Amino acid sequence: MPLSTQSDQGDGQYVLVASLDNVRNLSNILKAIAFKDHALFNATPNGLKVTVEDSKCLQANAFIQSEIFQEFTIQEDSVSFQVNLTVLLDCLTIFGGSTVPGVTTALRLCYNGYGYPLKLFLEEGGVVTVCKINTQEPEEPIDFEFCSTNVTNKVILQSDSLREAFSELDMTSEVLQITMSPSQPYFRLSTFGNSGNAHYDYPKDSDMMELFQCTKTQTNRYKMSLLKPSTKALALSCKVSVRTDSQGFLSLQYLVRNDDGQICFVEYYCCPDEDVEEE
Amino acid sequence: MDCILIGSNVKVLAKAVQSLSRLGEELYLEPQENGLALRTVNSSRSAYACFLFSPLFFQKYTPPKSSTQRCKMVIKSVQAVFKSLSSLEKTVEKCRIELDIEKSRLTFTLHCKHGLLKTHNLSFQDSESLQAVFDKEGCANTLTAQPKLLVDTVLHFPPSLEEVRVSVNDERVLFRNHVEDEAEQSKAMMTEFCLSAEEFDRFVVNMHTCITFCLKELRGLLVFAESSGLPVSLYFDEPGRPMVLSLTDSVLEVNFVLATLSEEGQPRNHNSNMRRVSEPPITDDFMNDDVDYIIAMEAGELAGDSDWPEPPRHALTPPRLHGAAGDQQESSGECEDEDGQQGAEETPVEESGRPPNKKFRSLFFGSVLPTPSQMSNRTLQSQEVLASDSEDEDGSPSP
């Protein structure tokens, strides 16, 4: 890609400037949704939202609030652009992944607006790297129309136990079936693989279950291949909320604590595979 | 069949499954009156393993009413039930296994911490009984050792080593790697490991012998033995007869049965599971089948080992016929072949008398060139070449 496709401007003209003392507070979260090459960045005065989609059936969003940044200046109400996420992550981690205590890489992210490249200044131990990544036309993200009022079932679990279940899931199964019900089995993950089927049941009074609000018995199937990337977010998180709406759309929300103990969110939305009334 | 396991016994069962998975690809599950048997056999049917868990191993054990509750399944699917072996103890409180052939149901239910319930409904096939016929008490030699001793011994051999030779006399046991191909012998690194009789808890040697078997098949047992801490007993006698490794305690009996190479170099499976007890001894017709497996070795003194007693230098005596009736069965009842094909190939009888003297070519022990043998043992009466076909059962003298 030629370096001068997009022109550069001076400092004062930036539409968005964001600084972080520790770039890992951004890169770690982005890794949790980096299952596709391209990501949509949307910045508002509230912070940064990064969206990755797959085949119009799966959407992952990472939210990094403006408070996480040491500096977050935005000249417009909403700034959007699309970049190659893989390239961006390579740049953010350009100083390597070492976690030597006390040594952090600082980031200053600058964007001039539509048509301009995304400029990254990364500094570690006095060494500065400047990266310019070409931006692309932002695409409209899918709106799953998942709103709180449509939610029929919701549970909040501690990530530890769900991590264990996800790590043991039979990957020969094409689908992951999730059953949520006010009665037995309450919250069940099922797989149907080559060697048989398996069910993981979480009772509503388990001490891993922080919240249990199920109004209606629902069973939905989701493609395992779509949900697999969510395990990265699960690995980073300490709590996860699982919600389904009346249409069977799934929302997984992960509470992630970054290196400095601050809270960020990652969420995954997934379309159901088919309507299954019984197990 | 319905049984419940609690606490650390779940891990023992999981380790047994893991141990069996290193030998065969299918797990045969057979609930019996005297406990639950988990068995497997390797693809070449030269190694068999059985873990028998007595009813006391379980918190509750309900044997099936009919005796036809037997099934087999892909071992990987059972391993999937017991993933993350290391955390099994901490997370699993109870495990329930239910088998109902009529309802086509095999269910493993794990009750874990925090109320988490894991249910696995596995697919399986009906199967016939898989049982090897072997006689531990009838073996001439019995050695019992702490598992660590054997594990440490095996450690000295490369993991890729297939076959190992074990020679035993009144005072010690020698483990050597076995290299069959003459060309390889000059390039291969030969390792010899000697254990004196004192290192063993029990050392009963009634026959000085040298057997060769596949070490790989045993590694699964040794891992299990080490984790259980139970002493391992080896039962064997002459080459060609099966070797048995056994672990027992009050609630568990483990037996690994391996075929050993007969002195012609052909592995014999006459301990095999597929044997029909009533079958007559195999005739000469099978002799011609074994050309590929015959390894010729010239009789000669075993060099480089001065303490070694010199085995008799005469020609082999007429084979002893251990007929179908002669081999005592440890398992009661017939052995049935699950798919009915194997019965004819495996023979219950063995033939050669004494283990012959052998030399093997190596840098350390001098060398003798093995000569190619001829197929028919009948024509070699004048030579001290072992070329007899192991399948030759009818008592004809071997050279």
Automatic annotation (TrEMBL), chain A:
Pfam families: Rad1. InterPro entries: Cell_cycle_checkpoint_Rad1 (IPR003011), DNA_clamp_sf (IPR046938), Rad1_Rec1_Rad17 (IPR003021). Transmembrane segments: none annotated. Keywords: DNA damage, DNA repair, Nucleus. CDD domains: PCNA. GO terms for biological process: DNA damage checkpoint signaling; DNA repair. The keyword Nucleus applies. GO terms for cellular component: checkpoint clamp complex. It is found in: Nucleus. Belongs to the rad1 family. Component of the toroidal 9-1-1 (RAD9-RAD1-HUS1) complex, composed of RAD9A, RAD1 and HUS1. The 9-1-1 complex associates with LIG1, POLB, FEN1, RAD17, HDAC1, RPA1 and RPA2. The 9-1-1 complex associates with the RAD17-RFC complex. RAD1 interacts with POLB, FEN1, HUS1, HUS1B, RAD9A and RAD9B. Interacts with DNAJC7. Interacts with RHNO1; interaction is direct. Component of the 9-1-1 cell-cycle checkpoint response complex that plays a major role in DNA repair. The 9-1-1 complex is recruited to DNA lesion upon damage by the RAD17-replication factor C (RFC) clamp loader complex. Acts then as a sliding clamp platform on DNA for several proteins involved in long-patch base excision repair (LP-BER). This is Cell cycle checkpoint protein RAD1. It comes from Paramormyrops kingsleyae.
